[in-house]
Amino acid sequence: MNFSELLQKRRAVRDYEDRAVPLKVVEELLQDATLAPSASNNQPCRFSVVQCRKTIRALSDESRANLIRDNEEKKIQLSPEYISYLKNEQTNVFYNAPCLIYIAGARQVRTLEVDCALAASYIMFAAADRGLATCWVAMGANIRDPQLRAQLGFDENHRIVAPLIVGYPAAVPAASARRAPQIMRVITEAR
């Protein structure tokens, strides 16, 4: 497929086949992610791959509990419907995907969020090109338990920016409507 088709094919998918993504394919996605631009070519992104469903579930439960706690402590404000969703023991914030990739980096990197977002977009397009689906699950970034963070290879100096789920799609949603670009101004040379 050409690049324009690839842009149109990528979707946020939340329904996956019960089929593992080969580690070799995941490694290819990460290699593609290293081609993403980063500020001053700093390349601050670090990756952790989880293909163990039990661990993915533990990470989901940790994120859910922390979001609920933050809401109760008024650190964030979530809707009652969202809280109800998070309190449901059956909720897996990673939608039972077979593979989870965390993109993180050193907290002190000023451009970390943008750099990780660019790497994430490269992974999403590389996955779509290989017939895989992805979804950036921001609520899955709330991992504070030191043991879970250590298991991921992240210490307190790392900030998780982009949790991406990856898998073979069971269903691909239709494209949502997109608005036209909101161009504020076009400034050209005076003639």
Describe the structure.
The structure is a single chain. The chain has helices at residues 3-9, 23-33, 53-72, 80-87, 112-129, 146-152, and strands at 46-50, 99-106, 133-136, 158-167. With 191 residues, the chain is an alpha+beta fold. It has a single domain (3-167), classed as NADH Oxidase (3-Layer(aba) Sandwich). The chain has a four-stranded antiparallel beta sheet with strand order 1-2-4-3. 31% of the residues are buried.
List strands and helices in order, with pairings.
Layout: H1 3-9, H2 23-33, E1 46-50, H3 53-72, H4 80-87, E2 99-106, H5 112-129, E3 133-136, H6 146-152, E4 158-167
Antiparallel strand pairs: 1-2, 2-4, 3-4
Helix pairs in contact: 2-5
Keywords:
191 residues; alpha+beta; NADH Oxidase; four-stranded antiparallel β-sheet; 4 strands; 37% helix
Bin the helical content: 25-40%
Strand order of the largest sheet: 1-2-4-3
Number of separate helices? 6
CATH architecture: 3-Layer(aba) Sandwich
What fraction of the residues are assigned to beta strands by DSSP? 5-15%
Secondary structure: number of strands: 4
Low-confidence stretches: none
Q: Identify the CATH homologous superfamily.
A: NADH Oxidase
CATH topology: NADH Oxidase
* Cα distance spanning the termini: 42 Å
Order of helices and strands: HHEHHEHEHE
Query: Could you say which overall geometry the principal axes of the C-alpha atoms support?
Result: globular
- The Rg value, from CA coordinates, equals 18 Å
Tell me the count of domains.
Answer: 1
What composes the largest sheet? 4 strands, antiparallel
Mean pLDDT: 95
CATH level 1 class label: Alpha Beta
Structural class of the helices, strands and pairings?
alpha+beta
